Amino acid sequence: DLQTAKRLNDTQPSRWLFFTQYPDARPANTTTMKLNMTTDVQQQHQQPPVNEHNIRMDMMKRSVKVIDAEVESGNTEYKRQLSKPTASRLRSLATQMSYRLDEGHGRCTYHVGVEDDGCHSLLGYRSVSESARLVECIARSLNAVVLERLMIQREVKIGKDGKAKLCPDRKAILVASEPPVLGAKGGRTTVVELDEGEDGEDCKEEKMSEDTASRPKKDRSLDTTDMALTRCELTIQRVETHLIDASPLSLMQLVAGVMPGTTTDRKNAFGRTRAESSLSDGVADSAEATTIDQQVPADKPVIPGKENASSPDSYSVSETLSKNNIRIAVVGNVDAGKSTLIGSLTTSTLDDGRGRCRTSIMKHRHEIESGRTSTATTHLLGFRHTGETISGKDKLRNPGRRRSEDEIARESYRVATLIDLAGHEKYLKTTIHGVSSGMADYGLILVNSRHPPTHMTQHHLNLCCSFGIPVIVVFTKVDGCPEHAIKNSKQEVFKMLRAPDIGKRPFAVRNEADVTTCMGKLHSLAPVLETSCVSGQGMDLLRKMLFSLPKRRRHENKVNRNFEFLVEDIFNVPGVGAVVSGFVNAGELEVGSGCHVYVGPTDDGTFLKTVAKSAHIARINTSHVTSGQSACLALSLGKDLRKKLRRGMVVLQKDPACTREFDAEICVLKGEGTTIRKSYQAYVHILNVRQSAYARHIELVDGIEGSRIPLGHGRHSCDEEGLVLRPGSRAKVRFEFAKRPEYIRPGMRMLFRDGRVRGVGIITNTLEVQPVA
Length: 773
What we know:
The longest helix has 17 residues. The chain starts with a helix and ends in a 6-residue tail after the last strand. The protein is an alpha+beta fold. It is elongated. 23% of the residues lie in helices and 26% in strands. The strands form seven sheets. It has a seven-stranded mixed sheet, with helices on both faces. A six-stranded mixed sheet has the order 1-2-8-3-6-7. Strands 16-17-23-20-19-24 form a six-stranded antiparallel β-barrel.
């Protein structure tokens, strides 16, 4: 149309011919127009030949289709050219690439020098190569690498009439594999397609344009000038950051020319020296897309300047979230600052003293308004192998946006799962259930340094020690705290730790050497740290402590057992159906259409047979879950069966069974007014199971084998109704669930309460096992 012609006229030299064909668009002063045309033509002849080539390419109609047209969905993206993009444009391109990677489950393909309709963009090598470099920089910022970089030339020829045509002889096309700019060291350009076929008569006449006619006929080398029409195909794969670089550069640094492992820019656009990359050949040559099930490459990452040093072990995302995942329960009084501390750690920011950090992680509106946590939530704190934390803020896409769990998991070498529990006495039962079912490796006991510890601090210490969880005491809000106040608080806490029922020796941690000293001795020591989320005092030392903690629960040793998934929550996802979230306590599972599992028990003791369609770990789609992971399973259940799901169920692959009665060896904790006799009713916590139970039979024993709670001599008595247990007693008790049968096994640890914690024990036997109906 006329508007398009006017726009093209501004960039083409033959504007006078245009106005001959479109007289309505002729300017009023034609003489001035002729003079301007003469000046433009003279200036054009003074420019370098490459610009003449670009002008001629712009004049050509991009109508030579080389591949199929682009589709909106999928993992394939077309780009004509990227030239000096702005910061906002880079963020848009990074978001687009992240979408393509997600669509391809970790792998995508970029075609540079191609229009959206699949036609060749008719660009030279230099333009395409620079655009490919920018695409690779964007990929690197998203924890992805270029596995293959193919340069394709001689696909489009320029005929004598000046029109672009597709070469009829496909064997004459040159496909050269170039090493990625940020790829493995020592790469060379190699020709992929070596067979040169016999060209037809028409192709011989139009085989080369004027600018490439001097090239030898059988020259198979890549033409690196702008005279050769080129397009590029990039295969991009997402990998874990710790497999690439300990401290990856930002996107703007990569685009500006800073190479990984160097501090200087490139020499020039094309005479650059390829610095050594920290990516190993094993990752670069991987033939499988990086998904959560990917096996660890045989070669370990090579960090520039540290080739001879011992490199850390490489982990896939699946292993990071199981073998290298430390679960930490954070407990303390209502004013201790638990949510604030977790928010400050996960976002790598300081608090403003008015609840900014805690607001970023709270789940419900009433929690934000009151400042009190009422539910148990988990938050991921990622570490690189150097101990540096992964910032919770997404600086690439949106500085105000928090990173999602899948982004943190993919980038982390080591993960600390922080379990935020309620501190108010009103929500004590929620805290007890969180500690019971959280599979915590360690416990953080937070104490407000400005106030002495309360009875809730004592309850939390007893709770952690009842489950054999080593504790770390953290004094918060030390900024501006009077010396006498923190001194009194420490004295009270140390007195609690040294008590016979706790039996811990406090150990003040003041530097990194103290962190190393207490590692491996946490069964008898209780490290004590001082922190402030406002001033940042002690926060780096706390991060060092969390990174250095060894894995205590070895769930990987239970992989050979039968699959056992503990259900913690139920969801109904539109378009998916019933989804259960929880913890894989034993075994492993391959989900899919042929994965039959049993879910239960229901109220009548039966199990529902269904299919586990898919699974997620940290919001990452996977086909394989293993013991030690927190996961979500999508189940194929109808609307009626979906209503039977509840918290506390299990998902089993075989041998489903449940029981209503069980025997347990218990210890009655010391407390006020605790009396246990026959028909005593208490609320029982056994991992994810919580239900009222009756004491049907009581029998005294000398002690509980393997008990970690040192208690005094047992006190008991007999009355008309039989044996009576009092604080400090040890006994074997047969319990009966009051409402429904549950799935439990011998060896599980239990806790019972009637308002407050009254005792702990270990299940020794289950009775009246009900088979599947």
